[in-house]
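User: My collaborator sent over this chain with a note saying "see what the structure looks like." That's all I know about it. Can you take a look?
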Amino acid sequence: MLAVFILAAQASTITPALPADADVAGQADIVTVTASREPAPASDFGTTLTIIDRGQIEALSLPMIKDYLTLVPSVSVSQTGPMGAQTQIRIRGAEANHSITFIDGIEVNDPSSSGEFRYETLLAQGVERIEVLRGPQSALWGSQAIGGVINISTRRDTGLYGEAQGGSLGTVRGGIGGGFETGGISVSGQASAMSSSGYDIAGVGGGGGDRDGYENVTLHGRVSAAPTDNLTLSVVSRFTSSESRFDGFNFGAGVPVDRPLATRTRQVAVRAAADLSLLDGAWTQTASYTHTNAANINRNGPAFQNRSDGGRDLFRFQSSGRLDTGTISHRLTLAVDHERERFTSTDANPLAQSNQSRRRVQTSLVGEYRLTAADWLSGGVAVRRDLNDRFADATTVRADAVVRPGGGFNVHASYGTGIADPTFFELFGFFPGSFIGNPDLVPERSRSWD
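Assistant: Without extra context I'll predict from the sequence alone. Here is the result:
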C-alpha cells in the first residue's frame, strides 16, 4: 500500500460530473468522442463503450491511468515489474500495439516503441474522463485500432485544484492545475510529478544492491479562442519525461541480476486545430495538425547503450453535414488523414546493425454515414481506404445499430474490420542472436462482431 496520507485542495467552477455508472448503455446525456468522427450521444451507437468519469477518478484517487483501466471489462493490464516497468494494455485479447490512445485529441502511440503507448508514463492527475471503445475501429481511426480505442480527456476547470500523496519506499506524487476564461480565450493546464525510491529487486531478502526507482514529470496545457461565433481555434501541448531503473536478468538461472540499468523516456506533442460551424451548426469543418516526438534512452550506469527515436506528423481535415427530414436525422462525414512517421535507432557501437533511420507515409480517405429515426432506431456505417507507400493499400469497414423496442430495452449490434501495419521494430528491429526484423511483413487484419 503506497499512499498513507492524501492532501487535496480545490477552488474551481466545475462542469457537473457524468453519472457514476461507467456502463453508458441507454444514457443519452453522455457524449462519446471516439465512437464516431463527430461527437454524439453514446446511446446512439451499437459499439461497446465504457466511460470512467471524474467522479470515479476522484473517488479512487489512483496514481496512474493503467490502474483505472483494470476496472474496464475486456481490458487486460500487464506490468512486467515494479512502478515504471513496461506496462501493456490489451483490449479483447488483441496485442498491445493493436489499440490507439488519444489524449485531448493527440494520438500518443509511440512509433519508436513497437507502436504501443507507454502506459507506465501516464499519470492520472488532471484527468477528467477515460473512454474505452472496444472492437475494431480502423474504419474510423486507422491502423492499430484492432482491439479498440482509448480516449483520455483532461480537466478544463476555471480556478485551481491540487493533490498530493505520500507513502512507503520514498514514494510521493502530486499535481496542480487550473485555468481561466477571458475575452473569448480559455486557458487550462496541469503539472504533475511522481517519484519512488523503489527497492532492490535482485537483492530481495539479502540486500546489497541498488534500489530500482522511478521518476516522472508531466506538463499539459490547452489554449482555445473563439475569434467569431462560429470559429474556434485551439492548441494542446504535452511534455512527459520519466526514468525507470531496473536490474538485469539471468535467463539461465532464472533469477534477477543486480545491474544499474535505466530507461529514460521523453515525449513531446502539440496539436493545433480549427473548428468552423456553418448553417447553425448543421455543417462543420475541422482541420488539425498533430506533431509528436518520442525518445527512449537506455543506459548501464552512466554509460549510454542505445536509444530509439520516433515521430509522427498527422494532418486531418473533415467535413460533416446534418440533414433532418421529419423525425429522421442524417449525418454524412467525409475526412482525409495524411500521416508521416519516422524512426531512428542509435547504438553505442557506431558499426552496430541496429543503427538505422526509416520513414513511411500514409494517406487515408474516410466516409461515415449515420441515421437516427425518432427515439427508436439509430445506426451507421463507415469505410476507410488507406493508401500506403510501404504496403498494399487497405480498406476497412464498420457498421453498428441500436433498436429501442420500448420498456427500457435496447438491442445493439456492431461489426467491424481492423488492420495493423507492421511496426518499425517488426520490420527493421535488430537484437543479435535473438531478433531480426522482416521488411517483407504485411499488415495484420481482423474482423469482429457483437
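A starting point for your reply to your collaborator: Residues 1-28 have pLDDT under 50 and may be disordered.
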